[in-house]
Specification:
Number of helices: 2
Largest sheet: none
Structural class: mainly alpha
Number of strands: 0
Length: about 170
Amino acid sequence: MGELFEGLLNYHLGFVVWSAVAFLLLLLVLKKYAWKPILNMIDERESSIERALASAETAKNEMARLTSENESLIKQARAERDLILKEANDIKNQIIAEARTSAQSEGAKMIEKARHEIESQKVAALNDVKSQVSALSVEIAEKVLRKQFEDQNKQDALVADLLKDVKLS
């Protein structure tokens, strides 16, 4: 058994040595060709992540600034809208007042024109009535006088009466 143990130990010891040599060679090759590029890639990745975080923070700050700016612009736009609506309402009220004043003025002119027209129509109607009354009066007087003067003696007495009045004046 001792021999077997020694043989296995020698056999295994050579295997261990060769394994250790292969491992060291692999470690040197990896160190020379793989570790630096891997570490460089890790460093680059870390710096790109840091840059991305910094960019994200900058973008966040920019978004906050833009949001604040937008809110300010919205407030300003609302204030301008309110001012424009107030001005439009004032203009509307002014136009309505002017239209009302103009309508009242035009109405007053039309009423005055109607009054003048009514007055002129009234005067014309009165003149017409007067002329008709006077024509009727003359006609009635003519008929009455004709009836009254059918007798010659009455005519002579009336003429004499009229002549006395004319001489007296």
